[in-house]
Structure formats: structure tokens, C-alpha cells
Write a structure and sequence with these properties.
This protein has one domain: Spore Coat Polysaccharide Biosynthesis Protein SpsA, Chain A. It contains seven helices and eight strands, in the order ββαβαβαβαββαβαα. Strands 1-4-3-2-5-7-6-8 form an eight-stranded mixed β-sheet, with helices on both faces. The N terminus and C terminus are likely disordered.
Length: 274
């Protein structure tokens, strides 16, 4: 068992994927996923109502599964997942665990979101010395491997960092040539409508204006309106199917415990911050 930093524990060891060997300096790129076990009453609580707590958790589970698929498809990259919570209590926990079995998984640590983001980047630096990183949460299930690959190429081709601001004012993706640079943003307040611009400004103040690229703007998922709007962007994914079953009119395929309600009107912009 490898310990990337004090007080952090590896739950699963990464298996060699397209990127080659594990943790010995040969890995050049890493996709970081900050994830929360989709437990009813603790995940995507702003979807209730109209969804039930279990329905909201099933939407969160679908979002995480789609995000893990995108991360695993990034060429030449290892996947490192920082997980909060217990999958034994989660919706679709067995499916999530099956996907995580081929990745490196660490427990989230830190008092606030900023500290947790800094910690997983430190873990990546310890496990994969010299690797560039791109970090996302589980609130943008419409993303694909191409977007993550593009973010990594931004820092591999000379920039020190890249940040994608979300439509709601948060941010959805952070790419770093040196993952320890995440310490620059650990103290910035999160879940505010100016979190994204403040994060971008902090990175540019520390690294230089030209060293930090602004990446594409995406919608992320916080409310039911957000979920419907984002589902429409990737209609073939698990997330879209879960949203249709739980927030749509339904066709009899909704999972037990998921409430069906009339579909909300899609919103223009997304919701949750990383």
C-alpha cells in the first residue's frame, strides 16, 4: 500500500492503463476526480424537491459514473479519485466500485473544499512525480475525454495552469503543470458566484497572466433545472437517463424510491461549484 501523504490512505492501487507504469515517475498525466459517495440525503440535496432523496442520489450516481468513463478515456492518463463517504451506503455503489477498481482512490482530507482540492493535488504529486494534472468534480457529466485531454495539453504545451469557469460563477476544471500549485487557491471561498473569477485572478497573480489559460465555460449541476439542461447536452449517457426517469414524465423505468415529477423548464446556466 502506498501512502501519498500523511493522513491519506490509498483504498485501491491503480492498475496500469494507457499511461503505463504506476507511481514511479513514468506517468506523465493524471485525471483527478473529486467525488462524493451518492448516499440518499447527502448527495445532490438541492434536487429535493422535486426528486426524493434517493432519486437525487441516483442522479448523482449516474453523474459520477459518466464522469469516471470520461476520465478513463483520456489518452495516456491515470485516474486518481478522491472519495468522500462510503459506497456501501450509496446508490449504484457496486457499479461505482467496479469502475474504481481500476483506478487509484484516496480518501478526501481537509476541513473545507479548498483544503480538499489542495490535498488531492498533493497526493497526485507524491504518487506520480512530474505528472501534469487535470481536476474535475462530478457535476459536469456532459464532459468527455476530449475536453479533459485539451485541458492537459494546455499545461503540457507551456502554460502553468488552465481554469474553466462555470456559467454560475464557480469553476468546473483545473489543469496544473505542477499539481502542488493548487495551494494557491486553497483559501478562496467556494460556492459563491465569484469563486471562478477569484480563482482565476489568484492563479494569474501567482503565476503570471500569460501563464494561466482560461478554458471553456460549461454548465454544472446544482438544481433540477440545471440537471435537465445538462442532460440535454449528453442525451445518451447514464445521467440523462436518470434525469429522464426521476425528473421527467417517466416511462415506468424509474428506480424504486425515485419520485417522478413534471420536467422543469431547462435553465440557461449550470449550478454547483467544484
Amino acid at each position: 500500500m502506498r501512502t501519498p501523504a500523511a493522513n491519506a490512505s490509498i483504498m485501491q492501487d491503480d492498475q496500469a492503463g494507457p499511461g503505463g507504469a504506476t507511481g514511479d515517475g513514468s506517468v506523465g498525466r493524471v485525471v483527478l476526480v473529486l467525488a462524493k459517495a451518492p448516499v440518499a440525503g447527502r448527495a445532490k440535496t438541492r434536487l429535493t424537491p422535486p426528486a426524493t432523496p434517493r432519486g437525487a442520489a441516483r442522479i448523482a450516481a449516474a453523474a459520477l459514473l459518466d464522469t469516471l468513463d470520461a476520465a478513463a478515456a483520456v489518452p495516456g492518463a491515470h485516474v486518481l479519485v478522491a472519495l468522500e463517504g462510503d459506497l456501501a451506503d450509496a446508490e449504484r455503489g457496486d457499479e461505482i466500485a467496479a469502475l474504481l477498481a481500476s483506478h487509484t482512490v484516496v480518501r478526501q482530507r481537509g476541513d473545507g473544499l479548498g483544503e480538499r482540492i489542495e490535498a488531492v493535488h498533493a497526493d497526485a504529486a507524491d504518487l506520480f512525480p512530474g505528472a501534469a494534472t487535470v481536476q474535475v468534480g462530478m457535476d459536469t457529466p456532459q464532459l468527455d475525454a476530449t475536453r479533459l485531454d485539451d485541458a492537459l495539453r494546455t499545461v503540457e504545451n507551456g502554460r502553468a495552469a488552465g481554469l474553466g469557469i462555470a456559467h454560475d460563477g464557480g469553476w468546473w476544471v483545473l489543469a496544473l503543470r505542477d499539481p502542488r500549485r493548487a495551494a494557491i487557491i486553497s483559501a478562496i471561498p467556494t460556492s459563491r458566484d465569484d469563486t471562478g473569477p477569484r480563482t482565476l485572478a489568484a492563479l494569474r497573480d501567482a503565476l503570471g497572466d500569460d501563464a494561466v489559460a482560461e478554458l471553456a465555460t460549461l454548465s454544472d449541476v446544482d438544481t433540477a433545472d440545471d440537471a435537465v439542461a445538462v442532460a440535454a447536452l449528453a442525451p445518451a449517457g447514464r445521467f440523462a437517463r436518470a434525469v429522464a426517469d426521476i425528473l421527467g414524465d417517466g416511462d415506468g423505468t424509474a428506480e424504486p424510491g425515485a419520485a417522478l415529477h413534471p420536467r422543469p423548464t431547462p435553465a440557461v446556466s449550470g449550478g454547483a461549484r467544484p
